[in-house]
Amino acid sequence: MGVGDDDAGRADGPPDSDLAMEQGPDELDRSLPGTLQPLTRPGTPRALLVSPSLAADRRWMGRAFERALEARSLDEVPVGAVLVQHDRLVAEAFNRTRSGPDPTAHAEVEVLRRGAAALGDWRLDGCTLYVTLEPCAQCAGSIVLSRIRRVVYAAPDPKAGWVGSLGNLLQDRRLNHRVEVTRGVLEDGSADLLRGFFRERR
Ligand SMILES: [Zn+2]
User: Fold this and answer.
1) For strand 150-155 and strand 88-94, is the pairing parallel, antiparallel, or unpaired?
2) How far apart are the CA of 50 and the centre of ligand 1, in A?
3) Is the backbone peptide bond immediately before 78 cis, with ω within 30 degrees of 0?
4) Catalytic member of 108, 110, 134, 187
5) pLDDT per residue over 86-103, tens digit each?
6) Is there a contact between 142 and 112 (Cβ–Cβ < 8 Å)?
7) pTM
8) pLDDT, tens only, 14-66
9) How far is the CA of 120 from the centre of ligand 1 (A)?
10) Strand (E) positions, 42-188?
11) Which are the contacts of 192, defined by CB distance < 8 A and separation ≥ 6?
């Protein structure tokens, strides 16, 4: 993600894109086998039909979103991330490129560092990373190095994302590690937060 670099990065926030249209939450729900349970009773609220895995994704992304709000309160580009293992929180962080000042202090790198410290191991296999914005090239590369099993992100980043937008470092067969990817969980809220942040600063 191009956080901390308003001019070259997402000066306009993450604009609507083809990817965003293809991978909206509703599309995603349908594309994931097993995420929707059979309709047992007519009129059952849709929320009750969502499997625990999608419910867990939304819950953890909600926590990442809270970290993004924390970043915004500090006038940082609002991106948050959490690292989870066996449905337990390992670490959480937010973008702090401005307060660092540190051009590499994206939420994902921050949460990887904290997670490795918490687990006492640089290998984070078995962990899932939730982040409110599609990872940039730096963060996608760091995620591959960490051996993380799965990444879930909310909003696409057509200008800097390397998990589907400009390329896909997490699923490149030439690399020695590939990562499962889920897109679009709480996408609208995360994208709106970024748009609002940049709009206020124009
Ligand atoms: Zn990044």
Assistant:
1) unpaired
2) 30
3) no
4) 108
5) 999 999 999 999 999 999
6) yes
7) 0.76
8) 444 433 333 333 333 333 333 344 444 455 455 455 566 999 999 999 999 99
9) 23
10) 80-85, 88-94, 127-133, 150-155, 180-183
11) none
108 is catalytic: yes
Among 80, 84, 99, 69, CA closest to 1? 80
Mean pLDDT, residues 145-172: 97
Three-class secondary structure of residue 174 per DSSP? coil
How far apart CA 105 and CA 125 sit, in angstroms, is 22
Which structure tokens are listed for 112?
């990887």
Q: 144, 138, 134: which is closest to 172 by C-alpha?
A: 144
Tokens of 125: 């296999």
For residue 147, report the phi and psi dihedrals to the nearest 5 degrees. Answer: 65, 25
Query: Cα torsion at 102, 108, 114, 117 (round to 10°)?
Result: -110
